[in-house]
Amino acid sequence: MKTLGFVPNSLLTMQRVPAIAKSVIQMNKAVFSPDGQVDLGFKRLVAHIASQAVGCQYCKAHTSVSATRFGISEEKMRDVYTYNQSPLFCDKERIALDYALAAAAVPNDVTDKLYGQLCEHWNEEEIVELLGVIGMFGFFNRWNDSMATPLEEEPLAAAEHLIADKGWRVGKHR
What we know:
The protein has one domain: AhpD-like. The protein has nine helices and no strands. Helix 3 packs antiparallel against helix 4 and helix 3 packs parallel to helix 6. By secondary structure, the protein is an all-alpha fold.
């Protein structure tokens, strides 16, 4: 509720087994702790790109809402799919998004070269934070796509406004 302004349908589904819902909430709190070194808005862009890697429309809609709520401009959110060429992204952000795309891919596509480039821009704690986001969204992506979790009104509107012209579609999350 505090993060999005509404309770996500995915969490409502998880509540059928309260221990799962509670552990996911704890993981979410740890991954998105305001005490971390990585900007909270940027973490949502990492989650967005990780979700793009596997095609989870539900999570891409949710991260469109949360990224803009945590300081990412609408212009930058719209440019996230062309981050490699966009002047709105710096090299440090680009390599982290490359890492998110590779780490979320199945099979994993992180190479020694990519990891070395990541280490040139991010320290160990920051890398753990980034991978925490990627790993947690790996769970969310599988959960929401497998459950065909219905998309709530606010993320649906945000995705239609911000990323529909980039190929986003509601898909099975009606």
